[in-house]
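Data deposition worksheet. Section B asks for the primary sequence of the deposited chain exactly as it was used as input, without tags or linkers unless they were present during the calculation. Section C holds the resulting structure in token form. Section D is free text for depositor observations; keep each observation to a single sentence. Incomplete worksheets are returned to the depositor.
Section A, Depositor: J.P.
Section B:
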Amino acid sequence: MRGFDRRSFLRGALSGAAVTLGLPLLDGFLNVNGTALASGAPLPLRFGTWFWGCGMNPGRWNPKQTGTGYDLGPELQPIADVQQHVSVLSGFNVNLDGRPNHPHRTGVTGTLSGSAPPKPHDVPAPSLDILISDELGAATRFRSLELTCTGSAKHSYSRRAQNVINASEASPLALYTRIFGPGFQDPNAADFVPDPRVMLRQSVISAVKDDRTRLERELGAHDRQRLDDYLTSLRQLERQLELQLSAPPPLEACLPPDAPAEGKGDSEVGHAQETHDLMAKLLVMALACDQTRVFNMLFSYGASDLHLPGSQTGHHQLTHEEQVDAELGYQPRASYFIDRSMEAWASFVDAMASFPEGDGTLLDHSLVMAHSETSFAKIHDVLGLPIMFAGRAGGRMVSGTHVAGGGDPVTRVGLTVQQAMGLSVDRWGSGSMQTNRSISELFA
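Section C:
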């Protein structure tokens, strides 16, 4: 292994992805009704997650009525204008199976991997977005995009394995440059010329691939598994590079935006909202230009540090230190940040629902799962996790309904997501979380 430099291999793979070209589309590629491509293939299907930290107050968040026309409690009032696009899922749990509840980790890991983690940072299985990007991501320039609104690129729940993490983009300006900078091809350009930098990286990656057999002979079983995880991502990158060497079909909706102002890059709640809105606009156009079909947006991380201007006390600290008001029945200062989170979620749904595409909107051809790592954060509860869906997944899903889980495992949600995205899977999860029951009420 003397000639093998692990760090340079990772830099090569990541820099290779950063200079690839876009895959846009045009009106002429749609059928006369705008319901599919002219070839008969469906419009692109997208999946995303939208995360906020420190949960909610169950009595103020969970609807009392199931089905369509569900009631909006105080903490769901911000979604009133987009309620027709949003389905609420309540009463779905992470089963611990004798494992400890690791604060701010067990809930999100159980939701995304289908299993409660034995240790705080264990990743028992790839996260849902990885499973879906393995299916959808090979056709686009970016297999997925990870975004965070509070300034830290390390905040990401997108993981193939414990040490294989997709870092988040924390700067709107950097995100703009990454998507619409030198590697982006104008979808309305008359001529297509393959970027020679892409061709160079393709040959470099092939050379790295050739070393695999030699390396595997020198590695132990655990390291071979880790190497295989890396090579899986590398093979996806190779397929994406191959796509960049032929002219892409253009997208009518793709209108590259102007560069945004730089975000503040911190967890002051107003700054996080501003960064979120900038990120959302860029992401909408990245999806419309078919630069990616999978994304993960973090409005705030688990153990949220959202705070007010001039305050040293963040949301997470308030959930533990603020007393429950005897008259109100909840923590008003901590709950302020729940309201701001739901406002941000509503603005995100509206941004996708307001963007026309084909015979509908970008949201109609997407499925977005909003979730948090806990229900009542004061006790780190992983029972009755708050989850919402937005979008119709290309007509596969209904929207605007409330489904009560009644204590069922949260893996029913993950199984539903995978089936809605077209994955051939009939059961998911491990231990008592394993299920073969998707949520039939959500399918059209």
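Section D:
Residues 221-243 form the longest helix (23 residues).
Residues 1-30 have pLDDT under 50 and may be disordered.
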